[in-house]
From TrEMBL:
Belongs to the inositol monophosphatase superfamily. The keyword ATP-binding does not apply. Keywords: Amino-acid biosynthesis, Histidine biosynthesis, Hydrolase, Magnesium, Metal-binding. Signal peptide: none annotated. It comes from Tropicibacter oceani. It comes from the Bacteria. Gene3D superfamilies: 3.40.190.80, Fructose-1,6-Bisphosphatase, subunit A, domain 1. The keyword Cell membrane does not apply. Its cofactor is Mg(2+). Pathway: Amino-acid biosynthesis; L-histidine biosynthesis; L-histidine from 5-phospho-alpha-D-ribose 1-diphosphate: step 8/9. InterPro entries: His_9_proposed, Inositol_monoP_metal-BS, Inositol_monoP_superfamily, Inositol_monophosphatase-like. The gene is hisN. Its EC number is 3.1.3.15. This is Histidinol-phosphatase.
Length: 268
């Protein structure tokens, strides 16, 4: 796709903020509500969805229908809608619904704008803590109650100094879990369970690595844009593009990324 005009870039950034605002307004009354219930989307497992997930995505889709009807949409709850502009909004209304129904503030609203090359703008929004991480199209900042600050991944270069995150201790398949443990065995500290908030912390310079498997495009496109804007790197476990999901390796520096990838792909 051709380079975006300054006017269009400004419009997309403004609409991304409007989407986050609309989603947060819908979601917050449900968070920690005593009568919150969830349905299970996964036969033979547990993949919860709540009214907040569905209503938040509907609210974001309503904003796009009014302001950018020519764009495509890919959302977790209501699927794909084709567009004609070459741009697609990739939406996850609540990334981390398991955390959401548990009352932990580690979930977030994920919003990305993608073209045929992948995500060009991303937002990780945590409305309960009023933290919004935005990256791409000249943006790399966190807007929070204590003010606005630039996003910058830290310069950790070796695994023995790295803080590593993943959401589930199982990571994915048995083979993927074994690969993760090879990296974790070299890291300074390994932590679990943060969903999209771990990617925000990487972009903010608080942690160094996030390694996951089994992701969908709507799980990772916004974090890719935010982390890359902060100077980090996000690929699959082989160093290729990660915007279609699957295995994801996010790192603060290329040197750290290379070391982690070596251990992920070492013989078991």
């Amino acid at each position: 796709m051709a380079a975006l005009s300054e006017e269009l870039a400004h419009e997309l950034i403004e609409i991304a903020h409007a989407l986050a605002d609309a989603a947060g307004k819908v979601i917050l009354p449900y968070f920690r509500a005593p009568d919150l219930t969830s349905d299970n989307k996964l036969a033979g497992g547990f993949d919860p969805v709540t009214a907040a997930d569905r209503e938040a995505e509907q609210a974001m889709r309503a904003v796009l229908a009014a302001r950018r009807p020519q764009d495509g949409i890919l959302g977790e709850e209501f699927g794909a809608l084709a567009g004609s502009s070459g741009l697609t909004w990739v939406l996850d209304p609540i990334d981390g619904t398991r955390g959401f129904i548990s009352g932990t503030p580690t979930w977030g609203v994920l919003i990305a704008v993608s073209d045929d090359t992948g995500p060009i703008l991303g937002v990780i929004d945590q409305p309960y803590m009023a933290e919004r991480f935005i990256g791409g199209l000249g943006q790399a900042r966190c807007i929070a109650p204590r003010g606005t600050s630039p996003l910058a991944a830290r310069q950790t270069r070796t695994l023995d100094q790295a803080i590593l995150f993943t959401t589930f201790p199982e990571v994915g398949t048995a083979e993927e879990a074994a690969a993760f443990r090879r990296v974790a065995g070299q890291a300074r500290l390994t932590r679990y369970g943060m969903d999209c908030y771990a990617y925000a912390l990487l972009a903010a310079g608080q942690v160094d690595l996030v390694i996951e498997a089994g992701l969908n495009p709507y799980d990772i496109q916004a974090p890719i844009a935010v982390i890359e804007a902060a100077g980090g790197i996000v690929t699959d476990w082989q160093g290729g593009k990660a915007h279609d999901g699957g295995q994801v390796l996010a790192a603060a520096t290329p040197a750290l990324h290379a070391q982690a990838m070596d251990f992920l792909n070492a013989a078991g």
